[in-house]
Write a structure and sequence with these properties.
8 helices, globular, 8 strands, Dienelactone hydrolase, hydrolase activity, alpha/beta, 8-stranded mixed beta sheet
Length: 245
């Protein structure tokens, strides 16, 4: 039985793109953008955890498979495809991924559907920077950047890049200055995240909430799930989306 059996399947179309989406739960909206190699059981489990925490969770399916049993060989097939697709910016510095426009539209749709002060977004690994790109839209009020891995940290410039155009980075800084903080979680010695947290701390100041875990793991919320990371994300989402609580 698929782990998505109890999720409502749909499709979101915008900006000339269309991707499947899965929805479950009630309460304020939270969009969880999966990492490589796809919509894995661990990502779905994290989505279910947020549903139990009181959120209406949306899982867009952007690449790879959506399945119940783990397939550890998929990353070797998926990552090279991401490197050449136009939707992602795996190597380019100073650019926002084209997929951001579709994701911003999804955020507006989720907000219009469930209401509340806005929606939360959790980006992970190759989609980590998407949470920043999406907060350019005021519908996103709780952005979470989990172990951002793009552009791939080949050289100091890419390692420090946060996957945004200069214009979008200024827009993010403006939103933070207006009271919308950003939460970042990563393992302290995860080389794939480069020096991006230093960049965000420099640009966003106290508006960047930096959570670093001991060790050299990677997937803070899924494969290498750390309870402190999950607790920090849930607490941040509750504070931003359920302020009365």
């Amino acid at each position: 039985m698929s782990l998505l059996a109890e999720w409502e399947a749909g499709r979101h179309e915008a900006d000339g793109r269309a991707y499947p989406v899965y929805r479950r739960g009630s309460g304020p909206g939270v969009i969880v953008i999966h990492e490589s190699p796809g919509l894995t059981p661990e990502v779905i489990d994290f989505g279910d955890e947020l549903v139990r925490a009181g959120f209406a969770v949306v899982l867009p399916h952007l690449f790879g498979s959506a399945h119940a049993p783990p397939r550890t060989w998929e990353a070797a097939r998926v990552v090279p495809r991401l490197c050449v697709t136009r939707e992602f910016t795996m190597f380019a510095a100073g650019r926002t991924a084209p997929l951001a426009a579709w994701l911003r539209s999804l955020a507006r749709t989720v907000h219009a559907t469930v209401g509340g002060p806005g929606v939360g977004v959790v980006g992970m690994c190759v989609t980590g920077g998407f949470a920043l790109a999406m907060m350019v839209d005021p519908a996103v009020v709780a952005p979470v950047v989990a172990q951002p891995a793009t552009p791939l940290p080949v050289g100091a410039r890419r390692a420090a890049d946060v996957n945004l155009s200069p214009e979008d980075l200024r827009a993010v800084a403006d939103r933070v200055a207006q009271g919308c903080p950003v939460l970042g979680v990563r393992y302290r010695h995860d080389w794939v995240t480069g020096t991006r947290f230093d960049t965000l701390e420099r640009v966003l100041g106290d508006g960047f909430i930096r959570v670093e875990l001991a060790g050299a793991g990677h997937a803070t919320l899924t494969d290498h799930r750390h309870p402190d990371a999950v607790e920090a994300v849930v607490a941040f989402l509750r504070a931003r989306l359920l302020p009365a609580a």
